[in-house]
């Protein structure tokens, strides 16, 4: 059964900084503790990652998966789709970075995720895992983007 989650949060960094954080997938292990390994398998015409292998350690298990990334015509959107993985049938999602009209150094970050595990897990385990993923995905991006924005402001 596919589980869906979405969340939005305000970020004190520009949409471009948020986009840079998301597209630097090789740096994910620096700010997402569950990610143990990242390998960029292919890059698109713009040099952005288009196929990426991940190995994640969570709840005493190791899960690996490969995602294809899509950037489309909107540079403020990054979407991904599961190509293959252990324990996963589906891991699709997207980030959208909406500029705040009154503040060019702020972003409304929207996150959406759909997960379908190959094995059935108890509801409380699924909810706990879902909350960890959302927190890592949202809070991690926000914290990293705001950290970069503060460093850029000091220069």
Verbal overview:
Helices cover 29% and strands 48% of the residues. With 155 residues, it is an alpha+beta fold. The protein has one domain (3-154): Alpha-D-Glucose-1,6-Bisphosphate, Chain A, domain 4 (2-Layer Sandwich). It has a 7-stranded antiparallel beta sheet, covered by helices on one side. The longest helix has 32 residues, at 123-154. The termini are far apart.
List keywords for this structure.
Alpha-D-Glucose-1,6-Bisphosphate, Chain A, domain 4; alpha+beta; 7-stranded antiparallel sheet; about 160 residues
Structure in a nutshell:
The chain contains 3 helices and 7 strands, in the order E-H-H-E-E-E-E-E-E-H.
Name the structural class. Answer: alpha+beta
**CATH class designation:** Alpha Beta
Kindly state the percentage of residues in helix: 25-40%
Secondary structure tally: strands: 7
Write the CATH architecture name: 2-Layer Sandwich
**Major sheet summary line:** 7 strands, antiparallel
CATH topology: Alpha-D-Glucose-1,6-Bisphosphate, Chain A, domain 4
* Overall spatial form: globular
- Report the order of strands and helices: EHHEEEEEEH
**Strand residues, percent:** over 45%
What does the radius of gyration come to?
16 Å
* Gap from first CA to last CA: 49 Å
Tally of DSSP helical segments: 3
Count of spatially separate domains: 1
CATH superfamily heading: START domain
Low-confidence stretches: none
Q: Could you report the average pLDDT, rounded to the nearest whole number?
A: 88
Strand order of the largest sheet: 1-7-6-5-4-3-2
Helices and strands in order, then pairings?
Elements: E1 3-11, H1 15-23, H2 28-31, E2 35-43, E3 49-58, E4 61-70, E5 77-85, E6 88-100, E7 103-117, H3 123-154
Antiparallel strand pairs: 1-7, 2-3, 3-4, 4-5, 5-6, 6-7
